[in-house]
Amino acid sequence: SKLQEVNASGRVVGQRVVWIRPVVPGRDVTLSISLGHQYRMAEAIGQRTACGVALDARTGEVLAAYSHPAFDPNLMTVPITVEQWDKLSNDPAKPFFNRIVQATYPPASLYKPVTSLAGLQNGVIGTGTVLEPCLGGYSFGNRFFRCWKRAGHGLVDHTQAIVQSCDTYYYQLGLRLELDQLAAAARSLGLGRTCTSVFADEAAGNVPDTAWYNRRFGEGKWTRGVLLNNSIGQGELLVTPIQMALLAARLGTSGRTPDPVFVIHPRRESRPPEPLPFSERDLAWVRRAMELTVAEGTGKAARLEEVAVSGKTGTAQNPHGEDHAWFMCFAPAENPEVALVVIVENAGHGSSEAAPVAGRWLRSYFAVDDSLTGYPASVTVMRRPGG
Hints:
The protein is of the alpha+beta class. Helix content is 29%, strand content 15%.
């Protein structure tokens, strides 16, 4: 065979003899993502700037991972025009940006179970502890740190502090901890590092500790006030959506969920994660408080009639616009099959914007009638056994 080189006008400017090797079929790749679950996630999110990630809580397999806005990858199978490329690359909605693993956000109140576990682990609080009442915020130094509920929550115990997501309670709990105790609890649950081996540009997020603040601001140049922000998942804390899906799964399974995987290897056993440093009693209490959050608290929009759901809402402050709306959950509450996280950018409260999206996806996941109505006519859906 001959390989010819031609210039822009089609003139042959060189040629050489080459040997063409026959094509050898590669090995099949089986994605963990279910087309049905993926489609339902896209349907639940709609046209919002958002993303959703669902994991099999037992295996860590990613069942759905949808980021919007996105682009049609079929466009890249043929040459595209300069105009098409410019439109995509300059789109302010960032369709090339994979929010699932590249975007980092403050976890907001989704972090409160981590703060609770750190407090329980270090013996600075109990599951029934009552702190100073919430009157709309907490004074520290010359600052007043507001609670999301301006009228206040009044007198609440630790359980109701999670259920009602009371910031004032967590400001006080944060001040009972050392910063490195809180950071260690977060890292033990998978935060502050990349958690997949698929994406080279996956963000690690940030779990700040004493050494980090010393590098950032200088030793002695910052105060314990950072604990008030960190305790409610704000400040310099940053996480990715897939990290929060893993956090939800590990809270639901007492840490047994392996790191997320996108490709199924039938002959490769997943490496079990390191055991969590928390007692089973404390983890069971967190799961129950999260179940009450969905049953009667801020996460009611994700409640199902047939299946108990444990979840947590969050509203992340955004210096560039409206707040981001978070929701994470696992279900069934007692023996989780699936863990899910949804974030909707610039949407406001997690209770009113993200939890309903999660609820719609969960209803389709647990639906008795698993019909395929609503899928595009061109789609053929195949399900994995048990998936």
